[in-house]
From TrEMBL:
A molecular function (GO) term: magnesium ion binding
Keyword field: Flavoprotein, FMN, Magnesium, Metal-binding, Thiamine biosynthesis, Transferase
Organism annotation: Marinospirillum celere
Similarity remark: Belongs to the thiamine-phosphate synthase family.
Residues the entry annotates as binding 4-amino-2-methyl-5-(diphosphooxymethyl)pyrimidine: Q41, Y42, R43, D44, K45, N73, T112, K142
Cofactor(s) of this protein: Mg(2+)
CC cofactor note: Binds 1 Mg(2+) ion per subunit.
Binding residues for 2-[(2R,5Z)-2-carboxy-4-methylthiazol-5(2H)-ylidene]ethyl phosphate: S139, S140, T141, G168
Gene (name only): thiE
This enzyme's EC code(s): 2.5.1.3
Top-level taxon in the UniProt lineage: Bacteria
Annotated protein name in UniProt: Thiamine-phosphate synthase
The protein's role, per its UniProt record: Condenses 4-methyl-5-(beta-hydroxyethyl)thiazole monophosphate (THZ-P) and 2-methyl-4-amino-5-hydroxymethyl pyrimidine pyrophosphate (HMP-PP) to form thiamine monophosphate (TMP).
Annotated residues for binding of Mg(2+): D74, D93
PROSITE patterns the UniProt entry points to: DHODEHASE_2
């Protein structure tokens, strides 16, 4: 499977307030990985360079064992030095084409598009590999993030890129709602890493998404799918 094809599923994002040291970070991430993550984003806006490099390299190794893509938030130098699979860049995080020049063609680049189809179209032209829209619900992790309507996922579908929903997706029911609206990936901090059991949290997200998608199928197809599962 190419890295692009893997951009579908659950996308966990770390938070230094919830996971303040290496032990807590690696234990919580490994727990989430056991339930199956498509992507993990390392996001720590305050870490000094040596802490960031140590933690990002540790996560790269851990994610590699579980077949999960590691994405670095904001910092292209750290993405390169840690051997991560990708970088996430917001609208204030520099020019996408420069990041592509520096990181090369194989590194995944994600772009924040808030609630804007125009930003999404620009990101596609500039070579983004996925587009992120948020915040989908009020978020305690980033209360200042501008809100999006879930209709943006339908509006952006024609761009043909993986679409990520982010912001306040802190329950399985919300994950299922955003997925049903057309998101390829569900990104979450609190819903996974503020939980005592990240593995169980990710498992419940998967389960809710599966149930919702199954319920959206015609009844005869539902019965057929269930008889194959059990
Ligand atoms: C998957 C994903 N989507 C959006 C963001 C937000 O990025 P940005 O707007 O640059 O804000 P910060 O995360 O840097 O505060 C993200 N990190 N990940
Ligand atoms: C980092 C970030 N960016 C957002 C955006 O909308 O661009 S919302 C957000 C925080 C996501 O954390 P939680 O799942 O705990 O709400
Ligand atoms: Mg950013």
């Amino acid at each position: 499977m190419s890295d692009r094809q893997q951009l579908n599923g659950i996308y966990a994002i770390t938070d230094p307030q919830l996971l303040p040291d290496d032990t807590q970070l690696f234990m919580a991430v490994e727990s989430a990985l056991k339930a199956g993550l498509s992507c993990l984003q390392y996001r720590d806006k305050k870490a000094d360079a040596s802490k960031a490099l140590r933690q990002a390299r540790g996560l790269a190794e851990l994610c590699g064992h579980y077949g999960c893509l590691l994405i670095i938030n904001d910092d292209v130098l750290l993405a390169k030095a840690s051997g991560a699979d990708g970088i996430h860049l917001g609208q204030e995080d520099g020019v996408l084409l420069q990041a592509r020049d520096y990181l090369g063609p194989d590194v995944l680049i994600g772009r924040t598009c808030h609630n804007s189809l125009q930003l999404a179209e620009e990101a596609k032209i500039q070579g983004a590999d996925y587009l992120a829209f948020g915040r989908c619900y009020p978020s305690s992790t980033k209360p200042s993030a501008p809100a999006t309507s879930l209709a943006i996922f339908t509006q952006a579908a024609h761009l043909g890129l993986p679409l990520v929903g982010i912001g306040g997706i802190n329950s399985p029911a919300r994950a299922a709602e955003v997925k049903a609206a057309g998101a390829s990936m569900i990104a979450a901090v609190e819903g996974i890493f503020a939980q005592s059991n990240p593995q169980q949290a990710v498992h419940q997200y998967h389960q809710a998404i599966k149930d919702t998608l199954l319920n959206s199928l015609p009844t005869e197809v539902q019965h057929d799918s269930l008889s194959r599962t059990f």
